[in-house]
Amino acid sequence: MSDKKKRPDLRVIDGSAGSKPVEPSKPKRKRRLTAKQEKFLDGMIKGLTQADAFRASRDCTNWKPSAIYTESNRLMQHPEIHRRLMASRAAVERSALSSGTSKRLWIIERLEALAEQGSEQTKLGALRLLGQCSDVGLFVERTSIETPQSSGDLRAELERKLQSLLTS
């Protein structure tokens, strides 16, 4: 017997009759991609189509177009390629969002500085632009159209209007 303490074999059961023990999940190992799969993924991240990314990842001179489309689609189903591509797209989306947000804040800060320190005409222009920001919404024209909620309301409204026209 070894010096290490032997761990008990623990199993999770749900308690129902005839249930089988649930095996503990094994830690997922990171899947490695081949060099060709990495090149395919790089092409997809750069914005190539699936077929073009596949062609860039290997020599396809003797391949039929249908085989290229089939194999590129099969590669897109690979769990690690799919995961990395989605992670890359999410990172680009976060970057674009943060870039847009930071530009918006920068513009608002500059307008506020102009509204405080500029000439009278500059102050007026800066304040007007600040008022048009979606956060403030001072100079935004809003219209609302009221519509009857049900056919019964519509019928009653029409009858009332017809009655008023007939009595005039």
Brief summary:
With 168 residues, the protein is mostly helical. Helices cover 60% and strands 0% of the residues. The longest helix is centred in the middle third of the chain and has 39 residues, at 79-117.
Note down, in words, how this protein is organized:
By secondary structure, the protein is mostly helical. Helices cover 60% and strands 0% of the residues. It is extended.
> What would you call the shape?
extended
Class inferred from helices and paired strands:
mainly alpha
H and E string: HHHHHH
Low-confidence stretches: none
Mean pLDDT: 81
How many beta-strand segments? Answer: 0
Helical coverage, percent range = 55-70%
Sheet with most strands: none
Measured by DSSP, the beta-strand proportion falls in: under 5%
Number of helices: 6
Radius of gyration, taken over Cα atoms and rounded to an integer in Å: 33 Å
Distance between the termini: 108 Å
Task: Record keyword descriptors for this entry.
single chain, 168 residues, mainly alpha, 60% helix
Question: Would you spell out the secondary-structure blueprint of this structure?
Answer:
Elements: H1 35-46, H2 50-57, H3 65-76, H4 79-117, H5 120-132, H6 151-167
